[in-house]
C-alpha cells in the first residue's frame, strides 16, 4: 500500500492485493472519500457482487443492503461503517448487521473497520473486515430455541408433578403442549384395555364431529391409533400427506397436525396430537422435544393412573372389610345366645346335685369350655365395636392408666416375681380412657404370659416426648418373638406356635385390639425383638393434640 500525497490517493500494490485475495474473510479498502479502492474475492462472495462494478464507487453503494440486525432498520449513510470511520477517525469494532443481497437472500455479517493514516497523520482511507456470521447466528438461534423448548419440558414436568389427579394431568398436558408449540388445538387419546380402540381423553379447541369420529375408533383406522402402535412421531401436512386423517379433520381449517406417542417405560400408553392452522413441518430438534414431552406426559399419566387404581382398590377393600366386619359381628352375636343356654343348663345340672362323679367331671368340662367360648364371643363383639360405637374422648393421665393396670395385675406380677419399672414422663392426652386401659392391659398381660422361665424377669414401661407425637413402649426380657411373626401377630387369631408358647392360653385377639385402638387414635404400633429368648418390646405412638 502506498500513498500519493499530491492527491491523497491510496494505491494498493499488486503484492498486497494478492495477499488480500488469499484471506478467507472479506477485506475492503476505501480512500478518504469513501470510494472503494480494493476488495478481495471473499467480500465479492459475501455481498454477492463483482469487484469490477464496485471499484471506484462509493462504499455506500455496496453497503446499501445493510440494516440493523435487531431492528431491521436500514442504516443511514453517516452510520455506514466506512463513512463513520472517515468521519470520526476512529476504528469500529465488530458490529453485527443484517445484509440483504441483491438476489434478495439475507445473511448476517460482522464488520470491523479502521482508519488508515498517511504521513503527518493524515487520514487517507479505511480498511474494513467483513465476516459472514450467518451460520454462527443460525446455530445460536437454534440453541436458544432448544433451550426454550427444554425449559418448556421442564415446566411441563414441574406442573405435572404438582398433581396426581388423572383428569388434571390430561388437561394440563394438552394445554401445555399447545402453549409450547403455539398449536391451535390439542388432544390426548388413550386406548381401551385391549388396545383395540382409542378414545379422546382430553381435548381443547376441537370440533364435536372430529371428536366423535375418533372417539372409540379402531386403533388401526387413524393416524392416532397408528402412532400408538408404532410409537413414532408423525407430522402431517395438508396437501402433502393428509391421508390417514379422519374425514372430519380433512374438512377442518387445520393445515397440519403433529401426532406423538406418550410413553411410559418405553411403551406408548397414549397419543398426543397438536393441530395447527399453518402448514408446519416438524424440524428434527422439535421432533426430539416433542418426544421428550411425550415421555414426560406418559410417565405422569401412568403415575396418576396407578394412583387412581390404588384409590379404587383401597375403596373396594374398605367396603369388603366393612362387610366382613358386619358379617363377623352378626355371626358372633348369634353365637352368644346358644353359648349362654349351654352354660346355663350345665350350671343347672351341676346345682341339681344328682350327678355321678364321672358325669360331674364331664359337666365341669362343659362349663369350662362354654365359659371360654363365652368370653371369646364377648371379646370378638368388643373388638367389632371398637371404632364403630361412639366413644367419649376425655383428658386422661396415661401415667394413672398404667398404674391402675399394674395394680390390677399386681398379684400375677408378684407371683412371677417380675421387677417393674417406669421410664419417662407419661402425658395427659384426650383419648378414650377404657381403650387405652385395654392397650396397656393387653401388652402388660402378654409380657407376663410370655416371660418364659426367665430367672430375672423384668418389665419396663416407658413414655417419650417426640415433638409431634408421644412414643410408648412395654419392654420385657421374656421368650421373644421370631422375626417372621412380627407383622402377623397383630392380625386376629394369630399366635406364635413354639414349644415356649404351647402351654400359654390365649385367643390371639389381644394384639388385634391394641392395633385397632392405636390406629383409631392416629398412632402406629409395632414390635421389636431380637428373636427367641431375647425379650420383646412393643412400641406405639399417639399424636400430640
Ligand atoms: P394371645 O391371646 O395369644 O396372647 P395376642 O394377640 O395378645 O394373643 O398375641 C399374639 C401372639 O403374639 C401371642 O400368641 C404370642 O405368640 C405373641 N406375643 C405377644 N406378646 C408377646 C410377648 N410379650 N412376648 C413374646 N410373645 C408375645
Question: What's the helix and strand layout?
Answer:
Blueprint: E1 2-4, E2 9-11, H1 14-21, E3 26-31, E4 36-39, H2 41-47, H3 51-54, H4 59-62, E5 66-68, H5 81-88, E6 92-100, E7 106-117, E8 123-132, H6 134-161, H7 166-180, E9 185-191, E10 197-204, H8 208-214, E11 217-218, H9 223-230, E12 234-237, H10 247-251, E13 256-264, E14 267-276, H11 284-352, H12 357-385, E15 394-397, H13 398-408, H14 410-415, E16 419-423, E17 428-431, H15 433-449, E18 458-466, E19 469-476, H16 510-520, E20 525-528, E21 536-543
Parallel strand pairs: 16-18
Antiparallel strand pairs: 1-2, 3-4, 3-8, 5-6, 6-7, 7-8, 9-10, 9-14, 10-11, 12-13, 13-14, 15-17, 18-19, 19-21, 20-21
Structure, briefly:
With 545 residues, the chain is of the alpha+beta class. The chain is 43% helix and 24% strand.
Characterization of this structure:
This protein has 545 residues and is of the alpha+beta class. It has four domains: 2-132, 2-Layer Sandwich (Beta-Lactamase); 140-306, Beta-Lactamase (2-Layer Sandwich), CATH 3.30.450.40; 312-385, Helix Hairpins (Orthogonal Bundle); 394-543, Heat Shock Protein 90 (2-Layer Sandwich). Helix content is 43%, strand content 24%. The protein is built from 16 helices and 21 strands. The protein has helices spanning 14-21, 41-47, 51-54, 59-62, 81-88, 134-161, 166-180, 208-214, 223-230, 247-251, 284-352, 357-385, 398-408, 410-415, 433-449, 510-520; strands at residues 2-4, 9-11, 26-31, 36-39, 66-68, 92-100, 106-117, 123-132, 185-191, 197-204, 217-218, 234-237, 256-264, 267-276, 394-397, 419-423, 428-431, 458-466, 469-476, 525-528, 536-543. Strands 4-3-8-7-6-5 form a six-stranded antiparallel sheet, sandwiched between helices. Helix 7 runs antiparallel to helix 11 (284-352) and helix 13 (398-408) packs across helix 15 (433-449). The radius of gyration is 45 Å and the shape is elongated. The protein starts with a strand and ends with a strand. The mean pLDDT is 90. The structure holds adenosine-5'-diphosphate (ADP).
